[in-house]
Automatic annotation (TrEMBL):
InterPro entries, sorted: MULE_transposase_dom
TM helices/strands, residue ranges: none
Pfam family, one: MULE
Extent of Basic and acidic residues compositional bias: 35-44
Domain MULE transposase: 274-323
Name under which the protein is recorded: MULE transposase domain
Origin species: Arabidopsis suecica (Swedish thale-cress)
Residues covered by region (Disordered): 35-57
Amino acid sequence: MSLALHDPDLVGDVDPEAEDRDEFHMEELLKEWTDEPPIRHDVYPESDDEENADGSGRFDTHIRRGDGFLYHKQSFFSGVAFKEAVVDYALRTGCNIKQYRYDSDKIGFICVGCDGKKGGAKCEWKVYAAILKSDNMWKIRKFVDTHSCIPNGECEMFKVPHIARLFVDKIRDSPEFYMPAKIEEIIMEQWKISVTRNQCQSARKKALQWIEKEYDDQFARLRDYAAEIVESNKDSRVEVECLTSAEGKDMFNRFYVCFDSLRKTWKESCRPLIGIDGCFLKNKVKGQLLVALGRDANNRIYPIAWGVAKVENTENWVWFIKLLKEDFGLRDGEGFIMISENWVWSLM
């Protein structure tokens, strides 16, 4: 039986290539990944959303893409990865690229910047990629890297789905900031490509539909996530609590996680003190994040357990603390102290 956040009626279509595109972006992130240096407990890490010097508090609008360069025999693990590379090329050069061929095993793009209009010579730029039976990788089989046109801010391949994919992560994080006018402004500032306000409005709507679908798919697999935690982290504890709707469907109520490695670390090296607190979950998923923290002798922080509930009330806190007592063997609380905001609970 699937688990749902609510019972939505999704409007609009979804991204048919989302799975392949996510795999492509994951590969790109792995290539760029570097281990971060440890952060001292008394040093604040830098934020990605720092205020400008004028105090305007504008969000960071940098959107990371590929380098935008293409070359003959360049390899890609899928057709989607090739198309993303062509999009990066169009963003880098500002050329008016258009797709002229798309089959399951071959894709081609041409430049239509001049297209022979007003007596101008037709642009010769062309790129063609295919996957052969003798080769499991997509490769650029033909590449004519010669432009006879001058970029004029138009790009036929830069349609609503491309704009939506470009800004979906930004809209997910800050939906109120990335409105159609702001999206139009950023595209012109960063890539010198002209798009209409209606295109940006449709792209924002499509991105929100994709995000809605992602949330529903993720909540439907919450039990799979719980099972995977237990499978990959032996002796950890995960609790998924649901309510049954009038239609007989399972609806999310509460969620609890305690990793065994953190539990052992707290028992062996941390002070007999637990800090608990809750904070709001924003965006589409509303509710409260409940967290229990421990500190060792060097003041290093350990998130020993956490949970998600619809509201922060006595019933949910009692449920959370009862699970804590069971997992950490607090029994009647003798010798332990629990701290939360402005009050201290002595469990002695």
